[in-house]
Amino acid sequence: MFCPNCGTEIKEKKTFCPKCGSPLGVEAVQEDTKTVEAAASTENVHENVIPPQGAPVPSKKGGKKKFIIGGIVAVVLILIAVMIGTSGGNTGSTSTDTYIETVQNGYLGEFTDMTVQKLLSSYYEDLLGCTAEWDGGENDDGQQIVEVKYTDETVGDTTIQFKMLDEQVFKISAFHDPNTEIEKASDLAAELNSLYFMAYTTKHETELDSAEKMKVFIDQLDQISGSAVLYGAAANYTGDRAQLCTLFGEDALETSVPWVLDAYGYLDMNDYAQQDTADTTAVEPASTADASSADYIFPSDRQYITEDNMAGWNQKTALLARNEIYARHGYVFKTQEIQNYFAAKSWYTPNSSYDGSDLSDVEKANVDTISAYEQKMGWTEQDVSPTKLAQGAVSSYVESQGDYCTGFDYVRPYAENEYLVCAKIGEYEWEAEYIVEVNGSDAWVIGRLDGGVFRPV
């Protein structure tokens, strides 16, 4: 580069000519800047050029790079904004979808051969023809909820909600089925276990085509708590699924799955009664002083009793075992010795309004079995009054007609060996009078009074 005034050659970058002091001009500076930038690609240039006031300022080497980096950041921010906008502003939508998939593909309790979605759809979709809609989100307490709704115009809507207890474990927190009355946890456990039992036996009917194979399946279920089905966990959960209830502070039902199903009428355990679960040692009645340490004689509220179970019992043991069935409901006994025996039990709660009716199918069967055994052994039945026998006969008859008794207004002698029983029937407790014949320990309905007129049945 040469000075335009004196012609002196200038080899280094200068703003003014070193010989005559003339300014070198804008073009010279720009050209020189390009030369410096080109040189900077191969060597470091650290010379600081301070132009005079009013002279043009060349762009700094890092300016362009800073702009490019700023542009990249802006693009990234725009992409994030687009993603948020696409998701409707809900940054938790991905987590909600994950929770829904966890429940759908997870298992209830120890039933790890059928996912939650398949279990529920086998009944509500495949059998009833409902349509399913899964959703999720947080409740007012900030807890993650997964919900499935099965809709059908005829059947009505069924809604089931699952509360996530952590990333993998969930609990059924709400269950609304228009055709099912749920009042307590055992009701829900029975309903869910029945769904599983029905779905499993339908799916594996060719594998369970004999009583022996079915018994093996029932025995397997007998190892599972009836309340285990209330909790669930993800498919890849590595913990003990049998402990899900207790893990989150809820006591598991002592009753196993088959006996829950039996108690609610979903399964008749008469064919699968276990022969080795009861202590068949003779049990002498405990005195009032030490009876509080004694337990139940037999689990007669959930297990059918057999003669093998009663082998070795004496007369008093059989008498107390039969009355133990009524004592569970709080029946107040008229025989003082028997009343004293149960009054000393920690589990006994007297209920003067209980009249001995409304026994479950298992309990009714056990009363009959023990009574038959007492007759077979020649033991006199000391506490079964004709009044109670008459009430039991009416209850059984009403149930055989597809209805149920809610109580009794009165039981009166009617004729020789006959009693007049006024029962309350059904939801609206309409009254009906029945004539019952009692013969020893047997009683049966022979007719009813309709407007004072006897009509045989």
Automatic annotation (TrEMBL):
Coiled coil: none
YARHG domain location: 294-375
Superkingdom: Bacteria
Key word Membrane present: yes
Transmembrane segments: 67-86
Keyword Transmembrane helix: yes
Alphabetic keyword roster: Membrane, Transmembrane, Transmembrane helix
InterPro entries, per the entry: YARHG_dom (IPR025582), YARHG_sf (IPR038434), Zinc_ribbon_dom (IPR026870)
Name of the protein described by the UniProt record: YARHG domain-containing protein
Organism: Butyricicoccus faecihominis
